[in-house]
Design brief:
There is one protein chain. The protein has about 240 residues and is α/β, with parallel strands linked by helices. It has a single domain, classed as Rossmann fold (3-Layer(aba) Sandwich). The protein has eight helices and seven strands, in the order βαβαβαβαβααβααβ. It has helices at about 15-25, 40-50, 65-80, 105-130, 145, 155-175, 200, 215-225; strands at about 5, 30-35, 55-60, 85-90, 135-140, 180-185, 235-240. It has a seven-stranded parallel β-sheet, sandwiched between helices. Helix 1 (about 15-25) packs parallel to helix 2. The protein starts with a strand and ends in a 6-residue tail after the last strand. The model has no long low-confidence stretch (mean pLDDT about 95). The chain binds NADP nicotinamide-adenine-dinucleotide phosphate. NADP nicotinamide-adenine-dinucleotide phosphate binds near residues 34, 35, 185, 190 and 193.
C-alpha cells in the first residue's frame, strides 16, 4: 500500500516544491491541498507525475474546520486502512500593516490560516498517526515568529503561536514515534514576497539574497524522513543568516 503525505498549500510557492521533493526523495503519494487555485494545484500534480511520482489533489480551506473534516473523512472512506503519516502545515498568508492601523479582519484572517489551520488539520490526523505509532509533522513558520517583524504583528503572533504548539505537541506524541518540528524561513522568492522591496530587505540578510523554495523544501524533506528520527520539538531557521 502507498504511504501518504499531506501538504497544505501545496499549489504554489514553498508548498509546491515540498510536494515535489517529498514525492521524489521519499516516494510518498503526496496529497496536494489547495484553497482556491485549482489550476496551480493541477500543475504541481502534473509535475510530480511527469517525474514518475504519485500525487492527488484535496481542496479545502484550512480555516474551515468542517470542510477539513469532511475532506479527510471522505479520503479515509475511499482509502480504507491507509494512513497519512506525514503532514506539512505549510498554508499561510500575510496581511501586513502597522499595528496602530490594523483591522480586525487583518488580525483574524492571518491567525486563522496559520494558527487555526495548524489546529484544524493536525487534530484531524493525529488520532490515526498515534494509532500508526509513526508520524512526521512539519510546520512552516517564519523568522517573524522568532524575532518579531514590525508591520507584521499579526503574522508574527500567528507564527509564534505555531512555534509554541510545535514544542508542546512534540512532547505529547514523542513516545509514539511521531516527531513535530517547525522550519522558519526568512525571505524566500515566492508570490508572498514578490511585491517586497528586495533591495531594502536585503540589508537584513547577511547572505545578501532571498532564498529559494527548493532550499526550504530540502530541509522539510529531511525532517519528514526516517533520517530525522531523533529530532523533535525543534525550530530550524533557514534565513541566510538573519540573527534570530
Ligand atoms: P504563497 O506562494 O503565497 O503560497 C501560499 C499557499 O498557501 C498556496 O498554495 C495557497 O493556496 C495556500 N493557502 C493560502 N491560504 C490557504 C487556506 N486558507 N487554506 C489552504 N491553503 C491556503 O506562499 P509561500 O511563500 O509559498 O508560503 C508558504 C509558507 O511559508 C507560509 O506558511 C508562509 O507564511 C511561510 N513563509 C514564507 C516566507 C517567504 O518569504 N515566502 C517566509 C517565511 C515563511 P492557493 O494556491 O489555493 O491560493
Amino acid at each position: 500500500m502507498s504511504k501518504y503525505a499531506l501538504v497544505t498549500g501545496g499549489s504554489r510557492g514553498i508548498g509546491k516544491v515540498i510536494c515535489q521533493k517529498i514525492a521524489a526523495d521519499l516516494g510518498y503519494h503526496v496529497i496536494i491541498n489547495y484553497s482556491s487555485n485549482k489550476a496551480a494545484a493541477e500543475e504541481t500534480l502534473k509535475s510530480i507525475e511527469e517525474e514518475g511520482g504519485e500525487a492527488s489533489l484535496m481542496q479545502f480551506n484550512v480555516t474551515d474546520a468542517k470542510a477539513v473534516e469532511a475532506a479527510l473523512d471522505k479520503w479515509h472512506e475511499e482509502n480504507p486502512g491507509a494512513v497519512i503519516e506525514v503532514l506539512v502545515n505549510n498554508a499561510g498568508i500575510t496581511h501586513d500593516g502597522l499595528f496602530m492601523l490594523m483591522t480586525d479582519s487583518q488580525w483574524s484572517n492571518v491567525l486563522d490560516v496559520s494558527l487555526n489551520g495548524f489546529y484544524n488539520v493536525s487534530r484531524q490526523l493525529m488520532h490515526k498517526m498515534l494509532r500508526n505509532r509513526y508520524g512526521r509533522v512539519v510546520n512552516v513558520v517564519s523568522v517573524s515568529g522568532q524575532k518579531g517583524t514590525p508591520g507584521q504583528v499579526n503574522y508574527s503572533a500567528a507564527k509564534a503561536g505555531v512555534i509554541g504548539a510545535t514544542k508542546a505537541l512534540a512532547q505529547e506524541v514523542a513516545k509514539r514515534n511521531i516527531t513535530v518540528n517547525a522550519v522558519a524561513p526568512g525571505f524566500i522568492n515566492t508570490d508572498m514576497t514578490k511585491d517586497l522591496d528586495q533591495k531594502e530587505m536585503l540589508k537584513f540578510v547577511p547572505m545578501n539574497r532571498f532564498g529559494e523554495a527548493e532550499e526550504v523544501a530540502d530541509l522539510v524533506s529531511f525532517l519528514v524522513s526516517k533520517k530525522a528520527s531523533y529530532i523533535t520539538g525543534e525550530v530550524v531557521n533557514i534565513n541566510g543568516g538573519i540573527y534570530s
